[in-house]
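User: Hi! I'm working on a homework problem where we have to compare a predicted structure to a textbook description. Could you give me the structure for the chain below?
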Amino acid sequence: MSFVMTIRRDHPIVVEELRQLVKDDRSLSILPDEEQEIGALLWNGEDPELPLAFQDGTLWSTPRNDAAIAKMQDISRRLGARLIGEDGGDFTDDDLAARKPAGCGTTSILLVVLLLVGTAIVNGCRS
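Assistant: Happy to help. Predicted structure tokens:
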């Protein structure tokens, strides 16, 4: 997953809310900025860390995995906001487990079945 996701709502997120969020959640920290008190939040919960830029009353980032998206969902809910993808899709309540692709085990079984069917067809053509 490497597209921009934005935490936003009808009214701007304000610095005081972000300070409270960091106070309540020790996995978050504030990254100051020269132009404003908070330039970004940093989530230290996963590798790689997830920076969430703060700009114009919104938070945005490019999450690289489901854990980062889940954290952004959590933050958006706590701020009474929505998690919106760059395509305009709302991911706030998206069930990440439900959209998981088939695992390697399922793929391996499918390949074996295809090989067996292909072999049977080839052998049937030779008879």
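For your comparison, note the following. The CA atoms of residues 21 and 28 lie 8 Å apart. Residues 104-126 form the longest helix (23 residues). Good luck with the assignment!
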